[in-house]
């Protein structure tokens, strides 16, 4: 009996260990990758000696993944794949076209098979204490744009758009609304922690004054076709022009000078007049 073998296994299971992500978000309609590593005692075992299976936690014969695809649950047929190489201790599972009811928990099981007939030996382990739960996400994650700063005309400007996801095998694509041939785009893809990844696109360009107030849109397209976007209005500094200060200042100064000259002239005239009238009084 298959189940009994497994129930007996915890005694030996001290030596066989698996590390499976506990909980992971998955975007419904997209894909998800469950990270998993397995290690066994003794010497190296090639992939052909190991059989990796993913099954339901409470029903060990309900297979989410099995190398014999006829054994896989109908609802998971053609949707699961062992991405990891068992010979390299990697039991990572990929699920595509995630459905709302794809709730596990998903447990990994390893069987050591005989070399001659590919039949399982007594060494089989179901790691039912370390199963993965999938949390379904319905809202497409919005990308993040930054840093928001004012651009200087003629100076290089860099903007980053990034989004987190859980499907490194079919990562989201990030596109920009700008389509200038001199723009430079760098793509970065990196793990954040336990199954969560970040896809990032870095846009570099040299803004001109006419780009002021222009709208920049960054769109993330997830596997499965779901899209989300983030917008940003570019601010480009004006090239400084002081005419609006210089012209009035010159006008005020000129007026003051003319008025001053006028006053001096009037004082002189008055003095002359008073001297003349003084003379006449004498
Ligand atoms: C396991 O395999 C996946 C898919 O090939 C890979 O992305 C991941 O880095 C591997 N994990 C380890 C620990 O090597």
From TrEMBL:
What range(s) does the Ig-like domain occupy?
143-233
What keywords would UniProt list here?
Immunoglobulin domain, Membrane, Transmembrane, Transmembrane helix
A Pfam family the protein falls into: ig
Transmembrane segments annotated in the record for this chain: 245-267
- What is the protein's name according to its record? Ig-like domain-containing protein
Which organism encodes this protein? Answer: Poecilia latipinna
Q: What is the lineage of its organism?
A: Eukaryota, Metazoa, Chordata, Craniata, Vertebrata
